[in-house]
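User: Hey, quick favor. My workstation is busy. Could you predict this chain's structure for me?
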Amino acid sequence: MPPKRLIPAAVTRLINSPVVNGVMRPLARLVPGLGIVIHRGRKTGREFRTPVTMIVSGGRIVVPLAHGEGVNWVRNVLAVGVAEVEQLGKRRTISNPRVVDSSSAEQLPLVFRVASRGLRVFVADL
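Assistant: No problem, here it is.
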């Protein structure tokens, strides 16, 4: 059974990536609860800046994977093992990226585990 997605792949490909990301990218650096993942393409080596919903909890960043764990930014960061994030005007390096079940991740705040029940989440150390 494929991993759970809240947002269908067609929406991600046709609307979210070209339209929503273009609008969100300037805002995500400055709005609490949002951030930018700065990563390199696995094949091209090109730098990408992907806006995401992100929280910082206990020296980690946590990103719910509403689009699923197969999206390019997740695959890129997992392949390299490091990336940078920008949130509230601060740019930091992340390491030890992994994808976990939100329900089994005790290090996540309870409210986050409940809100993202059934989803996988991206976690990395700051």
